[in-house]
Design brief:
Chain lengths: ~240, ~500
């Protein structure tokens, strides 16, 4: 009973947060396709097709997707209510029912995109001179999709940055810590990441850092899943890399 | 009318080549191990569509005693047996059939170990070499389970069963899965041992597709491209050469360091590309498309992403967008390659790495490395050539299919293949036979697209006899809805590479 009240309270606090699992929908447009998902009779806009370097990694037909995002007030995009910030997790198991591909419709346009569906027109810019160089003790965080230990492009970049920093300062220790987490869905259900995932995430990152030439590595992981609050759950599916001078 | 005339002339030219020139040419251009010939700095060989150019960038090569051209093992083979300059440093079925005829099947290229369908079969018959003679496939015996470099077994996420075994090798008590040394035999085309600076470039510490460490060159410790070979099982040209000598050449002793270095030195300076076309004329000319011909491959920088509209994969073909029928068709073909959008769908290691499924893109999305059209990152992809039901074999049961069929059953706690699940039927598990991972079943490392006219058949399993069959496969697989004209343009484009 007490647990039930807690869940009801947490769900109420979620307000404009939408956390759900459903089939993605792909809508063609004159430019790049939009990715959408339906929940509780409403259509939500997730994002558009871009490059692997983009912050948004679209879902996949043939797979359900865990959507965790906050409703953005304002006009619909591609027919759906936009969510931001947004986390997308593609489930591993196949669901052949997830197969909706909609044709382009007049008036249903994708937001402007840095890259169209053809080859890129963007010229690569090397380096990021605007960033302040790191100093002192610093913690890097690698985020994961739900139930996944795949190091996405963004995480790949973080690990490389952590390794470069540790080398630059001659780190006395590099501590890797892995976690798994819980997601509180909008319907009150809780999804818990599989056992052993925290260790797997931590070990993978440690192996990579070792391969990148990092010494003084320590690794740990927390077997218990982090609790879910329905608001910040994606931030707890993580590995932290604490680099100490 | 003009197209009819073109077709007529094409048929006439091909017939002429086949009937007259080929008979003499093969006697001259097939390099036998130990023949002692000197390769010129630039050589030209007739191909079906014109002329293949072979460029030795460091000058003429004396093959006398050269380890690439000298048998180093026990079966009389050298590297050159399967990497012939006249076939773009690979080998074609046309050449193999002619070789069988000329030597009555005694040429070392037909060695029992991997030139026949299985070593235990009678070796004096064409039918026991059918996969090599019909599809250009050599047997690749791989240990099961896969092994680490030190010989210890790797963890494996799936079991493998032999469902169909036309060659008898996978069920053989001596050579098969249940032999004393459990082995899976798959059958694959030899890749061109040329333009290799492009193939080995682009190594990154972390493999984008797996999120794990890349293999490293055991000599330098540097990450490698993982684009060598069909399954990326060898990290460097040196380890590949040693493996080939110990396996394909049947050596009992490892080659010397000097021999390996000389082989790699030769491979690293040879460039192949189409040099002229029967309708297109000389290809590498001033003011023309900049990436054609072998000298361009020598001169350009490797490791450059070409999936862009300002410096595309094979350069700009604007100079050919004129009135010449064939050249204009090639230019249109280049545009199709770069710009013709379609739904790229259910391709593991493309759609499954964060791009989304499906994505609306073009050929150049995957074939993105400048000059070769490989993938600039580690390039194994399950485009569907080996896995049922999209495989290149007949859609329904057919006696004519001579490839083995395996049933892969993935463990419940393993990530399944993203689009085929946990039970997969395949003619070649590809990268999965090296990684042991379910998600890799059927993934094959992309090949370079140069010198194509000289080295049919295509795909790693030799299933496409012509470039038309290659284009038809992609058209079916991705529902591209290419028109006949578009297919012709695309084929013409591929022919001049």
């Amino acid at each position: 009973m007490r647990l039930g009240l807690l869940i009801v309270g947490a769900v109420a606090a979620m307000g404009q947060q939408r956390n759900f699992v459903s089939c993605p929908i792909v809508r063609d447009t004159k430019t790049v396709p939009c990715f959408l998902a339906e929940y509780d009779g409403e259509l939500y806009y997730l994002g558009i097709q871009q490059d692997i370097t983009s912050d948004f990694h679209p879902p996949q037909l043939k797979h359900e997707v865990l959507v965790e995002g906050r409703v953005v007030p304002g006009p619909r995009v591609c027919g759906g209510i936009p969510l931001q910030p947004l986390s997308i997790s593609v489930t591993k198991e196949i669901n052949l029912a997830c197969n909706t591909l909609l044709p382009a419709e007049p008036g249903m346009d994708a937001p402007s995109a840095p890259r169209g569906a053809g080859p890129s027109s963007l010229r690569r810019v090397e380096g990021d001179s605007a960033r302040e160089p790191l100093t002192g003790r610093h913690e890097f965080t690698v985020l994961y999709a739900f139930n996944d230990d795949y190091l996405e492009y963004a995480g790949n970049t973080v690990v490389n940055e952590a390794a470069a920093y540790a080398k630059r300062i001659g780190a006395s220790s590099v501590k890797v810590a892995g976690y798994r987490a819980t997601t509180l869905l909008s319907n009150g259900d809780r999804l818990v990441e599989k056992a052993g995932l925290a260790e797997k995430r931590a070990q993978n990152i440690t192996t990579i850092l070792r391969g990148l030439g990092i010494a003084h590595l320590m690794v740990e992981w927390k077997n218990d899943a982090e609790p879910g609050d329905g608001q910040t759950d994606p931030s707890r599916r993580r590995v932290t890399i604490l680099v100490t001078p | 009318m003009r197209r009819l005339l073109s077709i007529f002339f094409l048929i006439f030219a091909v017939a002429l080549i086949l009937s007259a020139q080929y008979q003499d040419r093969f006697k001259i251009t097939w390099i036998e191990p130990g023949s002692g010939a000197t390769l010129p700095e630039f050589d030209a060989f007739d191909s079906v569509d014109g002329t293949l150019g072979v460029l030795n960038a460091s000058g003429p090569v004396n093959t006398q005693g050269h380890p690439f051209f000298t048998p180093l093992g026990t079966n009389g083979r050298a590297c050159v047996n399967c990497h012939q300059p006249t076939y773009a440093m690979s080998v074609s079925t046309t050449g193999l059939l002619e070789r069988w005829r000329l030597t009555d099947g005694k040429d070392p290229v037909f060695a029992a170990f991997d030139g026949s369908n299985c070593p235990g079969l009678p070796q004096d018959q064409e039918k026991t070499h059918s996969l090599l003679l019909k599809r250009g496939l050599f047997r690749i015996p791989l240990p099961w389970p896969p092994q680490n470099p030190d010989g210890s077994p790797k963890p494996v996420e799936f079991t493998i069963e032999v469902v169909r075994d036309p060659t008898g090798c996978n069920t053989s008590r001596e050579y098969g899965l249940k032999s004393a040394d459990p082995t899976i035999s798959v059958y694959r085309r030899p890749r061109p041992a040329a333009n290799l600076k492009y193939v080995i470039s682009g190594g990154q510490p972390i493999v984008l597709k797996t999120g794990t460490l890349a293999d490293v060159d055991p000599e330098t410790g540097n990450p490698v491209s993982m684009n060598l070979m069909t399954d990326a099982r060898e990290p460097s040209l040196k380890t590949q050469a040693i493996s080939a000598i110990m396996g394909h050449e049947g050596a009992h002793e490892a080659p010397s360091r000097q021999q390996i270095e000389k082989i790699v030195e030769f491979e690293s300076q040879v460039y192949v590309a189409q040099a002229a076309h029967i309708f297109g004329g000389p290809l590498a000319v001033a003011g023309g498309p900049p990436a054609l011909g072998p000298a361009a491959l020598r001169d350009r920088r490797a490791g450059v992403l070409g999936d862009n509209d300002y410096d595309p994969v094979f350069g700009l073909f604007n100079a050919w967008k004129g009135t010449d029928y064939y050249r204009a068709s090639v230019a249109r073909g280049s545009d199709i390659f770069m710009y013709r959008q379609f739904w790229l769908r259910d391709a593991a290691h493309i759609n499954s790495i964060g791009l989304g499924n499906p994505i609306k893109r073009t050929c150049a999305t995957c074939h993105n490395a400048q000059m070769t059209g490989q993938d600039l990152s580690a390039g194994w992809v399950d485009v569907g050539t080996t896995n049922y039901p999209t495989w290149t074999e007949p859609a329904t049961w057919a006696e004519s299919s001579e490839l083995p069929v395996f049933k892969i059953t993935c463990a419940r706690d393993a990530d399944p293949h993203p689009y085929l699940g946990r039970v997969i039927y395949t003619t070649d598990p590809g990268r999965a036979l090296i990684s042991g991972r379910c998600v890799d079943v059927g993934s094959i490392v992309m090949q370079q697209l140069r010198g194509l006219s000289a080295r049919a058949p295509y795909f790693a399993n030799g299933s496409a006899k012509t470039l038309r069959e290659v284009v038809d496969f992609y058209d079916r697989r991705f529902d591209m809805k290419l028109t006949d004209d578009e297919k012709e343009d695309l084929i013409n484009f591929l022919e001049v590479l």
